[in-house]
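Hey, quick one: can you model this chain's 3D structure?
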Amino acid sequence: MGTNLEKVYNPKGMEEKWYNYWLEGNHFYADNAKEGPVFSIVIPPPNVTGQLHMGHALDNTLQDIITRWRRMQGYNTLWLPGTDHAGIATQIRVEEELRKEGLTRHDLGREAFLKRVWDWKEKYGNTIINQLKRLGASCDWSRERFTLDEGCSRAVREVFVSLYEKGLIYRGHYLINWCVECNTALSDVEVEHIESPGKLYYIRYPFADGDGYITVATTRPETMLGDTAVAVNPEDDRYKDLVGKTLRLPLTDRTIPVIADSFVSPEFGTGLVKVTPAHDPNDYAMGERHNLPQIQVIGEDGVMTKEAGRYAGLTREECRKRVVEDLKAAGLLEKIEDHMHAVGHCYRCDSVVEPLISEQWFVKMKPLAEPAIEVVKNGQVRFIPERFTKLYLNWMENIRDWCISRQLWWGHRIPVWYCDNCGETIVSKVDPTHCPKCNSDRLTQDPDVLDTWFSSALWPFSTMGWPDATKDLERYYPTSLLVTGFDIIFFWVARMIVMGMEFTGKPPFSEVLIHGLVRDSQGRKMSKSLGNGVDPLEVIEEYGADALRFTLVRGGSLGNDMRYYPEQVEASRNFANKVWNATRFALMNLDGFVPAATPTDFSLGDRWILSRYQRTVERVTNYLSEYDLAEASRAIYEFTWNELCDWYVEISKPYLSGKFGAEVKYTTQWVLWTVLDGTLRLLHPFMPFITEALWQALPGTGETIVRAAWPLAQERMLDPQAEGDMAVLMDVVRSIRNVRSEKQVPPSRRIKALVFADGRPREILEENRLYVESLAGLGELEIGPATGEKPEQAIFAVASGVEIYLPLEGLVDLEAERKRLEKELANSEQEIKRCEAKLSNEGFLAKAPPEVVEKERAKLQAYLEEKAKIEESLKALA
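Sure thing. Here's the predicted structure for all 878 residues.
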């Protein structure tokens, strides 16, 4: 399009300009009527409360790279975006705002509170969407969805009612995870078990008959008030005789039995375990097996209940302290030990989770899990890297029922009503007006909402219009790929596969690409508490989105965590500068160039760069096909910087001048244009903004690089001989450049070089003398046979079998160089004497640690080698 480029690459303004250009041109739109192969992907919906963080930046950069690549390959490509209503997180945010006004949600009432949440969502809910656009996400924004929109809400009801009617959703009393801060139930995967320092308390339980006691170890002495048994392993010979006896529960007026259960580990504590069915999942299971009472001594607010007797009204922490004091006073606390153990924390607010018995809604997962296990085992769903398959299967094969009710107001209200007249339970896809049993209109809806992950589990098909048979569903479902972090395999990935199989009969995607976390430079997880988080938007503001994207993808490896180094973003920005400047050079030399017929008479440099470009196309495409985006980015980087910019651009300069004729100039222009055009296409998925700007400036391009064809490697352009010949020349040039650098010879000084070789290397040098002269900065180049007479005062090097001599005269000031070398020689000899004296000292050898002695020996060896090199250089000056 002939756009003039600024002299200096500056992403500010440019990135916004091109993103608006893409939106205005509708270039991300997926046409479900278009024929051809399909690539579809749904975004892991970020929380509507969210702000872009490094995890989002990595996850969405990976998705965007793959999406842009498939779009360029000609796939009918859909990247479907949207946000999650984030039940707990959003409600907490709005309740915090209310507290500033001195109000609670209960002051407003449910309807008014929900209006406030919707108002908040309308005001702030698009923040992360706009931030994803700044990152360059090429989503089809015309299809943006929200987990609480009308279509998704309808799908949620359809699924709930269907599962209920099949007997797969039920309501029951069960031990669940309860967050005392968020005041809601949590599913197992919403609890983060964090290894924490604690105490192990050894408590004496007296026998009811007054004859002695047993000692039980526990990490939670406050729950002792709810004990209903003490258990031993039936195979533990130490305690077999205790089974059936009765104990007096300390600090209470109750007695409890000793039972035998194989769950008990004889190795833990004393081998005797207190059983508190109302406050521990394992104890709950034992209680069910032995028909034990369930006594709840901790309430939903984290405060001790009336069942705790004299400790009622205390917090958990206060109660623990008081119980320990009272046990000591009664002579029933034997000892306390330090103990590391895994403590469950709420994944939202980080408070300690309390296991409580509660009436909740559950999904029976075992029957639903079977098809979801089978599609992974038979390869219909593939995890990348493969090692995550085992993690998925292990969890699915040991899956527990899913607690899906939450004690919140924001979310999908459970579609269950209770008749106030006859007690009938009504489960319906539409709001009922009358009880089907007694015809009463006095109906009360269940106050709870569904777990946020319930609606997210339907995301791949609910967003495409299910349960209706829409064109999108027919064309784009199942989706091709899911990109996500390993930390939500259980939260989301597994549940999507479960629901996809149950309601569509198909897995929701065929491949799952798992990536790691973005950690800080020390390898620590980024967190507010450590203060080591990095705001991607600040990075974009300083360096541009392209630099951040390239850093994130280049710094990782398949499935593993990556470390974030600010210097790497700067390096990516430097790479963008390099590409910008190379394109500006090309444009200055493509003035008047019109791409026409493919030339036939190429120079060695032309054949070499065309061949290397074909290999790069093949490498990058193969890496992308394997989802090894890090290696793909490295392949582009190495080719663009090291071969195109550092070598071919320099090689092309003499030929672009026109002094070798119009035909040679056109050929060089054509090669430069062809390779640059293709390189920008290869780079586009990784750095979309700069590549659009540069590609638009090239002659003969189209409307947008977004829809430009992905390069295909052309075997006819591969030229192994050109690559081999060019490698010889590059090796020779590098050797000469290295000497110039060592001797600090300025680029402007034209020096002399003599090279000696036989056979093909000599032919290459003779045929391409211009390359060596121009690239190595030579004023004179002599090429002779290997047996030719060599100069005496010269620096010598060997490269690819070619002997290189650079006469010292004219290269350096001989006298000054001799004095410098003699000074260095004296320093080396002095250090050698010092090391030898130290190593011959018996006292040093006897007292110094072995590693210190070894270090001294290594120093001596290094100085000896240095001395030999200096003497060799002095000999050359003689």
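One thing worth noting: The mean pLDDT is 92.
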